[in-house]
What we know:
Elements lengths: L1 E3 L6 H7 L22 H14 L9 H21 L3 E3 L2 E3 L6 E2 L3 E3 L2 E9 L3 H9 L9 H11 L3 E6 L7 E6 L2 H28 L19 H10 L8
Parallel strand pairs: 6-7
Antiparallel strand pairs: 1-3, 2-5, 3-4, 5-6, 7-8
Helix pairs in contact: 2-6, 5-6, 6-7
Amino acid sequence: xxxxxxxxxxxxxxxxxxxxxxxxxxxxxxxxxxxxxxxxxxxxxxxxxxxxxxxxxxxxxxxxxxxxxxxxxxxxxxxxxxxxxxxxxxxxxxxxxxxxxxxxxxxxxxxxxxxxxxxxxxxxxxxxxxxxxxxxxxxxxxxxxxxxxxxxxxxxxxxxxxxxxxxxxxxxxxxxxxxxxxxxxxxxxxxxxxxxxxxxxxxxxxxxxxxxxxxxxxxxxxxxxxxxxxxxxxxxxxxx
Length: 240
């Protein structure tokens, strides 16, 4: 695990994330139910495009995503008051070779085994999280378990915050069975990404034509890929 001391949202932070799979997009590789995601091919192409361009691809930011940045500090302040703790900003964390990463919102100063993830969604989405028994945890299962895997944490609190409504706060603990499946999918995806990148370098290609698949509903990562990952990566890398 490598902790990169950069401020989130800066050019350096964006450059570190460009072209590698990150926890916020792990649901594009594996579904919350543990199945291969049909979005994996498009995500692969996006990361390849970022490597070709040498910078992050432009992404759409909705009104509520923008307002989320505005409310994030208020959410953190509220959390610290409730939990009587101090948090610290985290820039970017990767595995040892820098091929996979995540950007948790905060670490807990007095407890290095836990973290905080904040969400500041639209009013209707926030109410959905208020009504759910586990808050926003199910919606962000892949991201949160991915953070627990990469950061080697035991738990992460996810807080959905709206300045005019009650909060939805839920603690998520490691699910080692799910992390085993998630890590196998992500590591296999990363291996394929590196293989395609090497091919791009050798050929001097500047873009990749999307490959056709016989079955567009089939999982992007095959069973053989998953078995390869489970055999060639250590139990520690798989999060077991």
